[in-house]
Structure of Kynureninase:
Amino acid sequence: MTDFELTRRQFDLPEGMIYLNGNSLGPMPRESVPAMTRFLKDEWRTELIKGWNTKDWFMQTNTLGDRVGRLIGAPPGTTVVGDTLSIKVFQAVAAGMAMVPDRKVVLSDNGNFPTDLYIVEGLIKLRDAGYELRTPDPEDVMDNITEEVGVVMITEVDYRTGRRHDMKAIIDKAHGVGAVVVWDLAHSAGAVPVDVGGCDTDFAIGCTYKYLNGGPGAPAFIHVAPRLLETVEPFLSGWYGHEAPFAFDINYRPMAGKIERMRIGTPSIASFVLLSTALDIWDRVDMNDLHAKSVELSELLIGEIESRCPALRLVSPRDPQARGSHVSFAFEHGYACMQALIADNVIGDFRAPDVMRFGIAPLFIGRDDILAAVGKLERILKDERWKDERFQKRSLVT
Ligand SMILES: *Cc1c(COP(=O)(O)O)cnc(C)c1O
């Protein structure tokens, strides 16, 4: 059994803060500071260029990739970390398009996170070959998987509402019509059990700064099905994906049959230190235990808000199995109300137009936190404290 009392103590949260935003940016593990200090003193300062060999910097893309891979059901050797999620969207969708060259439709949905759609728009312009991006309502994705579709690119858990797509059903239907599937697991990795291997997805991508707690701007990841590793086209054909990077050949030859071919260029080793420290906690977590705890806490939050804050309306699915690990409520004055809550040291966030979002991360959130947070929310609503002038102004980042 995962020990959630222990994992909680492994994070260094500011005194008195209730942090319900681990779905956007996870908190800092206590070990991050000593680990980073060790890296600076004992690796960068003393090893310098030798560190690529003596400290294995060069293959951390893969060793960290395998540790993230375990959390999403990916077999070893099929996941690498590096770059950003937006770049991984480009890589995966471009590779997917090349696998079905005669099909010109990329299917996503209009609940997807905008950057995923923007990147595909750019890719379509670049290809300039008559491609089309279709974005039906999320409920209509299944009906839109037809023989016209080449690539199905879906984010499993909706960043606003937490609604969760049925991964297996979509993959089976897509494969049935000969389409390729790319899953974005940004709000799934470390939130819900995922089995990319068992579902046989073609590609899966995601970031590590949300539930995985890798730190601001932590590296993204990409998983490619083992059956594709011989043939997948790494269009961002950088030297880290080359068969022999240190041959300094002037022509690109992708690393044969290995996930290395999805690497691009020199990654940020300093941010790998932070990711590795966060994964030291995750290595001992069972995703089924985590999910059970997430459901328990989410049900508590929903029940408490619905009984004590009736002005808020649940916009997440009521069925826990149809949700990720965050819960969202619509409220006309959601922005100001969230600002008032943040001023009271309960950190959630807001997504336009009117959604208040609460991330449930059982590694460091417990029942007492939920009860205290709803207590404060209830008082803010009763006192109409959200009407205060200082809660109306929108920051650059919401
Ligand atoms: C958070 C998130 C992103 C962010 O992409 P970055 O390149 O890391 O800024 C992209 N897609 C989805 C679905 C997300 O939830």
Remarks:
- Residues 32-282 form a domain with the Aspartate Aminotransferase; domain 2 fold (CATH 3.40.640.10).
- Residues 84-86, 113, 115-116, 155, 159, 184, 186-187, 207 surround pyridoxal-5'-phosphate (CB under 6 Å).
- The longest strand covers residues 149-155.
